[in-house]
Write the structure tokens for this entry.
Amino acid sequence: ATFDSDLVPTGSNLNVGNESNRWKDGYFSGGVGIGVNAPIAGAKLKTDGNIAFTSASVGIILKAPGGACYKVTVNDTGGLVTALEPCP
């Protein structure tokens, strides 16, 4: 299908794709909003731009080889800070 106007749902809480019929890739020229705790297991993130967080209390959670998870944030002088975090 080709669209030459906005793709707008007729109601709320509607999905794009489902468990058995998934979209392969998505390409966007603007922002993309993802709900809180959105399940994106196995997702690969590629970008030609920056990734920004709007709160200083959030960061990136990484899993160490031993199985523990750590949240990586930044302090006021630009240094990286790590803190033990429950694994998602």
Observations:
- Residues 15 and 21 are 11 Å apart (CA to CA).
